[in-house]
Specification:
By secondary structure, this protein is of the alpha+beta class. The chain has one domain: Lipoprotein localisation LolA/LolB/LppX (outer membrane lipoprotein receptor (LolB), chain A, Clam), CATH 2.50.20.10. About 20% of the residues lie in helices and about 40% in strands. The chain has 5 helices and 12 strands. Strand 2 and strand 3 form a beta hairpin.
């Protein structure tokens, strides 16, 4: 279980989402022309509307395992996934590297931020069509979905961003094997500031050991 959760954290930080079929009764309709452009404009507008974001999340792994926690975002390039007990994971992106700390095993895995789906959405100025390869733009009921992959080819798989009422509610990451990781966002806020050191793994790991 710990290994699977750690693997999905790396993917989905790693990953995010809620399947659109859970919210709508109709199959997704692929958009073209003005409708496609309108959804992309909305997605870019929302992703550029904040510099800091905090939310609760539920992560669902390909095997059905679930974990809860709090996610913190500070653009450009910084994110922290803090998992609730009994999970012993901590995921921190410091602007260039994503580190997954397993406090139970006392191990840390690192991967370049540019090799994760986060790199597409954590930029200071997000333009999905310019920054990524847009595979599909679709709509299902009140949900709008944008599926993209890394234009530079450094990231395996693809990510689907899902919006409702003009805001990002979730995202799916599908890896090269077809496995999907989901994280659903709730209680989203935009704090004025974050605690110094929140996005530096050594500081966070040391603080957790003192608790």
């Amino acid at each position: 279980m710990t290994h699977m959760l750690r693997r999905t954290a790396l993917l989905g930080i790693a990953a995010l989402a809620l399947a659109p079929v859970a919210h709508a009764q109709t199959s997704p309709v692929v958009l073209q022309g003005a409708d496609r452009a309108s959804v992309l404009t909305m997605a870019n507008r929302y992703l550029n509307s904040f510099s800091r974001l905090q939310a609760r999340f539920v992560q669902t792994s390909p095997g059905g395992g679930r974990a809860n926690g709090t996610v913190y975002i500070q653009k450009p390039g910084r994110m922290r996934f803090e998992y609730d007990p009994p999970a012993q994971l901590l995921v921190v992106a410091d602007g260039s590297v994503v580190a997954v700390r397993d406090n139970e095993l006392r191990t840390t895995e690192r991967t370049p931020l540019r090799a994760t789906p986060l790199n597409i959405i954590l930029g200071q100025n997000v333009d999905l069509e310019r920054n990524a390869r847009v595979l599909r733009v679709s709509r299902s009921g009140p949900w709008s979905m944008v599926t993209v992959r890394d234009r530079a080819g450094q990231m395996d798989g693809q990510i689907t961003l899902q919006f409702n009422e003009g805001a990002l509610r979730s995202w799916d990451v599908i890896d090269a094997t077809g496995a999907r990781t989901r994280i659903t966002l709730s209680d989203v806020t935009q704090p004025a500031n974050f605690e110094p050191g929140l996005f530096r793994l050594p500081d966070v790991a040391e603080r957790n050991r003192r608790r």
